[in-house]
Amino acid sequence: MDTKILIAVDELCRYYGHHLAVDAISFELAQGEVLGFLGPNGAGKSTTMQMISGNLAPSGGRIAINGIDLLDRPRLAKAEIGYLPEQPPVYPDLTVREYLAYCARLHRVGKTHRGGAISRALRRCGLHGVETRLIGNLSKGYQQRVGIAQAILHNPAVVILDEPTVGLDPNQIRDIRELIRELGQSHGIILSTHILPEVQATCTRVQIIHRGRLVFAESMQALQQRLTGKALVLETQSAVDITKLQQIAGVSAVEPLASRRARLLFDADNPAAAVAACVAAHDWGLVELALDRQSLEQVFVELTCNEDGAAQAAAA
Q: What is the b/e burial string over 105-137, where b = at least 16 CB atoms within 10 angstroms of the residue's CB?
């Protein structure tokens, strides 16, 4: 069965005067995917999100939401989008149910379907039991849930969440992450966040934008392979002979880290067994031999702070 494409962005550009804020971005989002959209301040992330949500006209390119061209048929396309901004657009003097009834009318949910839509959103967001309480009296975590409920009330194909866990405590963060994963099974989700562990815990794909261009776009599985890397970290009790390590089959390079630590790069099969045998043969005393694992933060910094690296990734 073919995967349904819910967002198709093709060569999207945006100028502010002579400044090119978004430069020929293209990507797709399928049903069942949760896309982590990352980028440093000023990278073009917010501009891209505003164009996808229909709040900002692009200078060039096309956007299709659930097969509907956003520029040609904006009303129909926007009806397929649910949006939660960083500050939830809730009214503290309304009860949860009153607010969702108001949002249902804004989303043009028919009167005969309104009650069912509200009950479904309450259930999916874990709000049963608080629907008669004033929103202003709820915790920030529950207010975020109310914000997500209004975003999914009309059962949109695409849900865009901007920093949904900012200011929440660890238990609230865990609950919101579970909710996002559950929503991701039936919708296409774009999650914009600066909290990198959030992406690893929630998303199926990762996208990084820098200076208006996409410099990284991979599945979470491919990202995990990249984080594992093709390198070993070796620590010994006594100083090693770099020349002998370089002669080990499969080792492409050795980078000294300290007198008794080194990073061994390899191209194909992991040469850990041969490295351990070499250390034992020369009585260097093995202390540590492990895969050199990067963090998502290191990848992010590498792509957005090293201009040469970013340019190479964009050209790949």
A: eebebeeeebeebbeebbebbbbeebbeeebee
Q: What number of CA atoms fall less than 13 Å from residue 235's CA on the CB side? A: 6
Map out the domains of the chain as residue ranges.
5-80+156-217, 92-146, 230-291
Second-level CATH architecture of 5-80+156-217: 3-Layer(aba) Sandwich (3.40)
* Mode of pairing for the β-strands spanning 34-38 and 205-210: parallel
Instruction: Tell which phi-psi region holds residue 32, choosing left (phi > 0), alpha (psi between -120 and 50) or beta.
Output: left
Q: CA distances (Å), 207 to each of 217, 219, 265, 314, in order?
A: 4, 9, 26, 12
**Which tens digit of pLDDT belongs to each residue from 197-225?**
888 888 999 999 999 999 888 888 777 76
Does position 314 have pLDDT exceeding 50, yes or no? no
pTM of the predicted structure, to 2 decimals: 0.76
